[in-house]
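Quick log. Single chain, no ligands specified.
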Amino acid sequence: MIKIIRSWYDLLKEEFDKDYFKSLQKFLDNEYRHHEIYPVEDKIFNAINHLPLDKIKVVIIGQDPYHEPNQAQGLAFSVPSDVAIPPSLVNIMSEIESDLGIKCLNDGNLARWVTQGVLLLNTVLTVRRGQANSHKDKGWELLTRKIIEIVGKREKPVVFMLWGSYAQGYADLIGKQHLVLKAPHPSPLSAYRGFFGCKHFSKCNNFLVAHNETPINWE
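-> predicted structure:
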């Protein structure tokens, strides 16, 4: 079940020996055996497997994976290129276009952001088909909290985008050297309460440039 790059494994190996993670593994073994679980097992750690700690520039925190077929790929808010763009991501792209005056690609696969240093981390990394939050409180939150804490303690500045009260609950893990941007969640239920117009993407890039980092191409 643990398919994780060496650099992150070394940072998290103490967690893998703890009782909560052993219980989580047993739970997942049973879930994958008897139910349709997303994402597929080798994509569970997709967010960190393609982004070592020293390459992270931006962190976007999500909740749990998409729970319908062919959507989840181990990256928060992202879907494969041949899948319809979900409503929250439509709103994210709308804000990017408004904020930066650019046109986003008609492609929900955000791997293009990951390669530039954007960590798209859900705090729960698996879900049962058709049942949102079905793997909540099974242990994932303890592991992903540790990941956020590790990034939050890194000396080199990072931009954290915390959308919605759930993501904002992790703000206490983030050191003062980082830029923390808060807004309502981009879901259609809440985007009009302040996500639209938050200008997080220009603020992010301005911060990166000020710290001698290449800005993100958010297209």
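The longest strand covers residues 58-62.
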